Amino acid sequence: MNRPLEGIRVIDVSRILAGPFCTMLIADLGAEVVKVEIPGSGDPSRSIEPTINGDSVFFISINRGKKSITLDLSKQEGQKTFRDLVQHFDVLVENFVPGTMARFGLDYETLKKSNPRLIYTSISGYGQDGPWAKRPALDITVMAKGGLMSITGLPGGEPLRPGASLADSTAGIFAALSIVSALWQRQKTGEGQHIDTSMLDCQVTMMENPIARYFGTGRIPGPVGTRNPMAAPFQVFSASDHYFAAAIFTNRPEDWEYFCRVMGRPDLGEDARFRSNNDRNRNVDSLTELLQTTFSTKPAAHWLRVFTEAGISCAPVNNVKEVTEDEQVLYRGMIAAIPNASTGTWRVANTPFKMSESTTGPAGAAPGLGEHTNSILREMLGLSDKEIEDLRKKGAI
Amino acid sequence: MNRPLEGIRVIDVSRILAGPFCTMLIADLGAEVVKVEIPGSGDPSRSIEPTINGDSVFFISINRGKKSITLDLSKQEGQKTFRDLVQHFDVLVENFVPGTMARFGLDYETLKKSNPRLIYTSISGYGQDGPWAKRPALDITVMAKGGLMSITGLPGGEPLRPGASLADSTAGIFAALSIVSALWQRQKTGEGQHIDTSMLDCQVTMMENPIARYFGTGRIPGPVGTRNPMAAPFQVFSASDHYFAAAIFTNRPEDWEYFCRVMGRPDLGEDARFRSNNDRNRNVDSLTELLQTTFSTKPAAHWLRVFTEAGISCAPVNNVKEVTEDEQVLYRGMIAAIPNASTGTWRVANTPFKMSESTTGPAGAAPGLGEHTNSILREMLGLSDKEIEDLRKKGAI
Fold it and tell me: Is pLDDT of A1 > 90?
């Protein structure tokens, strides 16, 4: 079977997370991704611990299946080589602070002159324009400014960070969606375009529901522990031994009565405070206390069994090890093996593309720094060994 | 300018959040989305509080720019009408518990016979196959099973939920990316396909970094407050009045010395425990305590000013109200106005698609229940007023 984006070539000067996460998705969908790295040190994530035999697991996880060439874009020879290379690509991805590519003479306006079909993708913290455009951003500053931390935590408590770098990764997915949409448009118009993905914009989109509630009520949402602020019960409970999650999302009294019978508290099903979801949400503190009292009498396995048998949503609160060993996660092939020079193979999280007529997923090892410099300069640009050697002497590759 | 997905028709039987979030993105990219709802009550999210003049803000926010028709898919007449309609669509989106569409006689194998170009998109909690496939899922159960809650919270503390329904929304984005990739593939092969998006699969992808760290070290990541577990300093600090975020991500000692000079603690720049990012990460508790001591002496505005002037990443921890009034958020048009019958206009979060040659964003009001039933049955299927009336009497629409 084909990979959906087979034949699409992506030149990727992005570093660290948001950009490389985007091109990981695009590579797993079948595009050929050529990663451009600075000679000597490469993508800064190559030096981030922990490492296995000197390879950063941060780097390996999101750069599998890509090729690597070195180019110093601050040098004229590096810029010229980059401009020559861009002719051969459909998509460019960069995530420098806005203005950086223009300083290198590699902005969209310049590059589109010689490649009008180019889809030029800029990912930045706050966008290419606006009062914050030129500020450097990192995941935590964008999550802070975008409001997600203000609603994560215990009620009345300090703001907390969701445990993964979601400002980076959501921007990466949105950039990938923008890229494929631009490819779709290009096959009708013949023209590329400039995509301007802002991590902060993406955060605002992910906050659509808290924003809708704020506009609807004038009340500023705060942290609510594990609860969903629009549904109840819809949270984590503490059983006698472990945590577990259970949830319903319904205004029908008969669904609530059923939930109560299943947990062995039919009396709660009749309680006037709790008939509909909206009722329960208004009285959620009393509700949580009553449910918690019952749930704490038996182990999590008991509650997971009775709710599962009854067809009610429930799940254990898995740690990361348990996720990697989970029967459903493994059945779905979500832990993938890729080749790795020093360990033979290495396990990474897969991407979630399951398409009946397409092959998707990691296409190979993460590249060594500059592993494909010579072959790509030779094959795409027709450079001779001597010309390549000259570029190397000048520090351009 | 064109919208990227102009001319693409999507028939959407999904409800609540993951599916409607996906089709919101697709609609904002220019596709025509026809939402199919159950007669009488419609999408369950229509009855979720808070409401404005009877309209659920949950519903309005993610269903703007769509059309609505009613069809009872459990009735034979509803199924036949649906099958007739599907001929006119490029994409179908559903997020029932797996098996439901087959019970209605509306599974992919059946529908592709008469529309082989159809891109049939199933979004589910755990996927269409595997031991957990048939279990009902809600956002909280997927976040629990996928591990994100186990790394969100205070060190040593209970698992917490990121404050937004991220298991739903990330699945929605990944489904949208799969759909546009399948459209791209279809223009080469002429064939549609079945997309099987699992919310749990999507969670695993978002957990690629904690999973990489676990595989790299054998240590199970736990919650670390506001910290990034691979970088330091990269967290929220408490100034004398407010919280603020500040971060660097570098192994170069000169970057760290600069950070220390900017904050007025050049002595820390020389401290052997903190020279590189990896050094600082190993000694993060001491580092945090030392930084926090200095930061607590002055207000957040002071630290934000000096770090901003120095070009170091920093941001306030905004609440939801502050997000909707933020100068950069407003400059970027991330709060959009849509028409609304009872209020004139209504504000919603925009989507983050900024493309130089495309129009994107909300295309109109959220539809009333069945607002477009008559017009669509008339125009697409050529039904007469009498035939439509008959369907209504039978409760099929």
Answer: no
Asked if A306 is an interface residue toward chain B (Cβ–Cβ < 8 A), one would say no
Query: Which pLDDT belongs to residue B185?
Result: 97
Q: Is-contact A86 A118, C-beta < 8 A?
A: yes
Predicted confidence (pLDDT) per residue in A355-391, tens digit: 999 999 999 999 999 999 999 999 999 999 999 999 9
Tens-digit pLDDT profile for residues A152-185: 999 999 999 999 999 999 999 999 999 999 999 9
Identify whether the C-beta of residue B30 lies closer than 8 Å to the C-beta of residue B359: yes
Rounded Cα gap, residues B184 and A373, in angstroms: 30
Cβ neighbours of B219 (radius 10 Å) = 11
Query: Using CA atoms, how far apart are residues A260 and B99, in angstroms rounded to an integer?
Result: 26
Of the candidates A29, A148, A187, the beta carbon closest to that of B163 is on A148
Please name the residue of chain B whose CA is at the shortest distance from the CA of residue A204. B349
Question: What mean pLDDT do residues A246-271 have?
Answer: 96
Q: How far is A385 from chain B (nearest CA, A)?
A: 34
Distance from C-alpha of A207 to C-alpha of A191, rounded to nearest angstrom: 33
Angstrom distances, CA of residue A188 to CA of A2, A184, B3: 22, 7, 12
Residue whose structure tokens are 């420098």: A96
Question: Measured between alpha carbons, how far is A193 from B100 in angstroms, rounded to an integer?
Answer: 41
Confirm if B28 and B38 have CB atoms less than 8 A apart: no
Which of these, B58, B6, B77, lies nearest to B392 by C-alpha position? B77
> In whole angstroms, how far apart are CA A232 and each of A43, A248, A260, A280?
45, 7, 13, 6
Q: Within an 8 Å CB–CB cutoff, is residue A202 touching chain B?
A: yes
Q: What does the mean pLDDT of chain A come to?
A: 97
**Would you state the pLDDT for residue A50?**
93
A204-216: per-residue pLDDT in tens? 999 999 999 999 9
Beta bridge partners of A246: A235, A314
pLDDT value, residue B1: 78
Q: Which residue has the tokens 């947990």?
A: A263
A135 with B313: Cβ contact below 8 A:
yes
Distance from C-alpha of A330 to C-alpha of B274, rounded to nearest angstrom: 40
Give the number of C-alpha atoms closer than 13 A to the C-alpha of residue B173, restricted to the C-beta side.
29
DSSP A9: E
How confident is the model over A122-127, as a mean pLDDT?
98
Q: Where do the H-state alpha helices sit in chain B?
A: 18-28, 57-63, 76-86, 100-103, 108-114, 139-146, 166-189, 199-206, 208-217, 253-262, 266-270, 277-282, 284-295, 300-309, 320-325, 327-331, 373-381, 385-393
Distance CA B134, CA B186 (A): 30
Answer for the pair B58, A209: CB distance below 8 angstroms, yes or no.
yes
- What letter does residue B165 receive in the DSSP assignment? -
CB pair distance less than 8 Å for A335 and B211: yes
- Chain B residues in contact with A162 (beta carbon < 8 A): 148, 152, 162, 166
Task: Write out the DSSP string of A249-275.
Answer: ----HHHHHHHHHHTT-HHHHH-GGGS
Domains for chain A: give ranges and CATH numbers: 9-206+330-393 (3.40.50.10540), 234-238+243-316 (3.30.1540.10)
Q: How far apart are CA A130 and CA A164, in angstroms?
A: 27
How many CB atoms within 10 Å of residue B72?
22
All residues of chain B having their beta carbon less than 8 Å from the beta carbon of residue A315 are: 137, 141-142, 144-145
Give the pLDDT band of residue A330 (cuts 50, 70, 90).
very high
